[in-house]
Amino acid sequence: MSLAVILASGSESRRRVLAAAGVDAVAIKPLVDEDAMKAGLRAEGLPVREQAMRLAEMKAIKVSQREQGLVIGGDQMLSLGEEAFDKPKDLEAAKDHLRKLSGKPHILETAIVVCENGVPVWRHLARPRLTMRPLTEDFIQQYVARVGEPLLSTVGAYQLEGLGAQLFARVEGDFFSILGLPLLPLLDYLRVRGVLPT
Length: 198
Prior knowledge:
By secondary structure, this protein is of the alpha+beta class. It is 36% helix and 25% strand. β5 (105-116) and β6 (119-126) form a beta hairpin. The longest helix is centred in the first third of the chain and has 17 residues, at 48-64. The two termini are 16 Å apart.
């Protein structure tokens, strides 16, 4: 009997990526206070990529402690140098994100951890690098007005799969990882575990 696959996330983007790839996963939102955890990790002075990995792990562990199967936890943080970006709280904050990112490269620290019986059994970190073109204030205002509330669900206040493509001069890295899930390494692991055919 194949192991159940559970996505420890409320992310619609991650769920869609898995479903489109033929992975039948149940999504369960983990009970994790992300803001408090991030504050603690930042107080420890951890690099942004390590913060993302710890958050992904905690989400997977929490759900895996009460659900049987392979539990996938993911987290994505944006690093601009040493500065970590969280999802914007409102559309004004989204505009601020875009102003700061304008004309600069940044990295999406995209972490994924698989847990079984409350224990991490596999992990992966993808680090796509995106370079935003210089943006005018008029463009930022029009872009945010046109896309609206969906911008609040992404750390960079953009959606590369849609109108957000207009923001960039260069994108280096795996498209799935930019969407928040390093899909190809995960599919390899699920094949190793017998969840998917080889």
